[in-house]
Specification:
The complex is a heterodimer.
Chain A: H1 5-15, H2 22-26, H3 31-44, H4 53-62, H5 80-92, H6 101-113, H7 131-143, H8 149-161, H9 179-191, H10 200-208, H11 229-239, H12 248-257, H13 276-289, E1 297-298, E2 303-304, H14 305-308
Antiparallel strand pairs in A: 1-2
Helix pairs in contact in A: 1-3, 3-5, 3-13, 5-7, 7-9, 9-11, 11-13
Chain B: H1 2-12, E1 17-22, E2 31-36, E3 43-50, H2 51-69, H3 76-81, H4 85-101, H5 106-118, H6 123-137, H7 142-145, H8 148-163, H9 172-185, H10 190-207, H11 214-234, H12 239-249, H13 253-267, H14 273-280, H15 291-307, H16 312-321, H17 324-341, H18 343-348, E4 352-355, E5 358-361, H19 371-394
Parallel strand pairs in B: 1-3
Antiparallel strand pairs in B: 2-3, 4-5
Classes of the chains: A mainly alpha, B mainly alpha.
Chain lengths: ~325, ~400
């Protein structure tokens, strides 16, 4: 089986043109994230122009919420998840300058307003608290070059509270280790230059155990493999310099088997329905392993490395 | 539409119903149908909803209603304040139905929460919201029953009920039925078991605050232990349930602190102020002793460890539920006796090396023609890996 690059490009291109399909409207609240997943996958496949740059930027700007963040869709309330996706896409398209300095200030103020006293972040005023949102906030502020010692110190303190005995991290202190949470915690510590806090041998061991005999990776012990963990697990291993601690050839085979070789796209596991979320994380996993002549992905930001190389690194001079 | 919404809402929030959403139902309409209740409360009706009907009959008109409201830049609080009681009820019903389809729609969640917070003083409303969320979390669709946002909303409503002066132990059975039912629907339900960990930590905290019902909360923690332990032993590979069991019998200080913070976070902007002070000023935390139970669990874990070749789930239950030295001793003894039984195979363990984070077998002969030796070797290597892994923690 070979990598169906052209079909994947066509699959992503078609997603935005299905406005007559009721599923399109059911996923309206995920549109900003979906666009980020699609654009990133296209960039990694060296096809960034498949989605018209001006249209993408216009959509992003149409989702600005007066409260400072970005919503998932025009007129939706701002949320950290959609705000990060918006900022990531503007950076990828080299279009951060479409934001006036005062607009950047209001985005930064929105993000910072969601940090709690213990250093954690809530996603919005609904109040969901999770290490995902710490990563989301720190990532977005890092792209904008607006991290501060107060924000960083609180975030690092909270993340360190979420470390578990097995080397992994959970969503809050004392919660079960989960590979996606591991990525968000290790990613935050990488951005804030505090990887010294990670027990890298123990975590590497826990992550390497996520590989199953069929080559796929799971997110927790005893769970089924899922292509998205090709990103969450692999990027975490890459960040702690242990990318070689899993069998690449077998994972490559698992990801390719999860492709829809007829209509394009990648699913969570072989023979399931493809979606753009699993498509980007499958392709990003392949990029990390160096397969298929893909653009190099940054394991911390899940964006092309050529873009993230330009970000200001913490601590700032 | 409003009448349709009200009718559906009455069904969805009725504790006598179980909700099922079918992707490919035989007919194109919402319908009712009866099945025995899986939770053991006797016959319970089942609401069967067709996904497409849910979209066309309920999602689209409600989506249009909410979209009409978000057309201006007024803050939601101002918009809701301008609504009449009937309008507010219609918006509330719309958010309830939309959350059944798009449970992670942040705008809808925000509006839903604001309305609920406006109604905290109305016990009937809060009770109905509680039943609605319970039905959602017991729904057959994983997308709904494992939703982090719905579990958080459920947590908020539990806190509101306690803050309103209700004795939480009086509805503990309902809470445990939701946790276990959701855990049955979705294997290793991260949010269901995390909710349960929070609940037991909260009850421990309340038991130490000097409130008159304190002793009842201590008893309730034991009831949670009994329910979770029973679930764990009937689902021995459910890693999330075992992690929760560890948090119930021996929560860390940071877990307890986190539970209090989460409870306070739920109370923001909505609850009676008196309860804040109860949460903020606990007395010295009284340890609820589980020594006997821990020893019993370790005995069982030892049996699981010896009888099941995969060790993935055992690791955390051992360390979390404690009893590590005892278990390590049992397993090491077992490994030694296996080596004595089969010295040839035991000798091959010398070729197990730690590489790339994993104890791997290097250069072991293939046992293709000798299935018994192959199985024995596999068991022995798994046991060896487990013992080596546990030794890391025994010395730290």
């Amino acid at each position: 089986m070979s990598f169906a690059r052209e079909k994947h490009i066509a699959y992503i291109d078609a997603l935005n043109k299905k406005q007559d399909d009721y599923e399109y409207w059911l996923s309206e609240h995920l549109r900003m994230n979906g666009l980020y997943w699609g654009l990133t996958a296209l960039c990694l496949m060296k096809s960034p122009d498949t989605l018209p740059r001006d249209d993408v930027i216009a959509f992003i700007l149409s989702c600005r919420d007066p409260n400072g963040g970005f919503g998932a869709f025009p007129r939706h309330d701002g949320h950290l998840l959609s705000t990060l996706s918006a900022v990531q896409m503007l950076a990828t398209l080299d279009a951060l300058d479409v934001l006036a300095p005062s607009e950047v200030d209001s985005i930064v103020a929105f993000i910072m307003s969601l940090q709690l006293e213990n250093g954690a972040f809530q996603g919005d005023l609904f109040g969901e608290v999770d290490t995902r949102f710490v990563y989301t906030a720190i990532n977005a502020l890092s792209i904008l070059g607006r991290l501060t010692p107060t924000v960083v110190d609180g975030a690092v303190e909270f993340i360190s509270q979420c470390a578990n005995f097995d080397g992994g991290y959970g969503m809050v202190p004392g919660a079960e280790s989960h590979a996606a949470q591991v990525f968000t915690c290790v990613g935050t510590l990488a951005i804030t230059n505090r990887l010294d806090l990670v027990d890298q041998e123990l975590l590497g061991s826990w992550l390497s155990e996520r590989q199953l005999p069929n080559g796929g990776l799971n997110g927790r012990p005893e769970k089924l493999p899922d292509v998205c963990y090709s990103w969450w697990v692999l990027s975490s291993l890459a960040i702690i310099d242990k990318l070689h601690w899993i069998d690449h050839a077998k994972l490559y085979e698992f990801i390719l088997k999860s492709q829809d070789d007829k209509d394009g796209g990648i699913s969570d596991r072989p023979d399931n329905q493809a979606d753009v979320y699993h498509t980007v994380f499958g392709i990003a996993g392949l990029s990390l392993m160096g397969y298929e002549d893909l653009v190099e992905v940054d394991p911390v930001y899940c964006m092309p490395k050529s873009v993230t190389d330009g970000f200001k690194k913490w601590p700032y001079e | 539409m409003e009448q349709h919404n009200a009718d559906l809402f009455r069904l969805l929030s009725n504790p006598s119903f179980l909700l099922r959403i079918e992707k490919f139902p035989p007919e194109y309409a919402a319908q009712l149908h009866f099945t025995p209740d899986a939770l053991g409360h006797g016959a319970r009706s089942e609401i069967l909803l067709n996904k497409k009907a849910l979209y066309f009959k309920f999602f689209k008109p409600n989506h249009d209603l909410i979209n009409g409201l978000i057309g201006d830049t007024l803050h939601w609080l101002e918009k809701l304040a301008a609504c009449s009681g009937t309008e507010l009820e219609a918006i509330y019903h719309a958010t309830c139905i939309l959350l059944l389809v798009t449970n992670d729609h942040h705008t809808i969640l925000g509006v839903h929460k604001l309305i609920v917070y406006q109604m905290v003083a109305d016990p009937v409303f809060i009770e109905t919201e509680f039943s609605l969320l319970q039905n959602y979390l017991l729904c057959n669709l994983d997308k709904i029953n494992k939703s982090s946002t719905l579990w958080l909303m459920y947590k908020k409503v539990v806190v509101i009920r306690i803050a309103n002066g209700q004795d939480a132990t009086s509805f503990l059975d309902s809470l445990l039925a939701t946790i276990k039912g959701s855990g049955e629907s979705h294997y290793q339900s991260y949010y269901a078991w995390e909710f349960c960990s929070w609940l037991s930590c909260l009850f421990r905290h309340l038991g130490s605050t000097g409130v008159p019902e304190g002793p009842r909360y201590e008893t309730a923690v034991r009831e949670i232990y009994a329910a979770v332990s029973e679930f764990c032993h009937s689902h021995p590979r459910d890693h999330s349930a075992w992690t929760c069991l560890g948090n119930v019998v021996m929560p860390s200080e940071r877990k307890l602190t986190q539970a209090v913070l989460e409870t306070m976070q739920c109370l923001r902007d909505c609850a009676p102020s008196g309860f804040h002070s109860v949460m903020e000023k606990p007395g010295p935390r009284k340890g609820i002793g589980f020594l006997g139970e821990i020893l019993l669990e370790v005995t069982w874990i030892s049996k699981y460890a010896l009888n099941q070749s995969s060790s993935g789930f055992i690791k955390s239950m051992v360390v979390q539920v404690a009893g590590l030295p005892k278990l390590l001793g049992v397993l090491s003894d077992r490994l030694e006796s296996l080596k004595l039984e089969s010295p040839l195979l035991g000798g091959l363990l010398e070729s197990v090396v730690f590489t790339n984070g994993y104890w791997d077998v290097m250069g072991v002969p293939v046992f293709d023609d000798d299935l018994i030796s192959k199985a024995k070797m596999s068991d022995m290597v798994e046991l060896y890996r487990l013992v080596e892994w546990l030794k890391r923690f025994a010395t730290s």
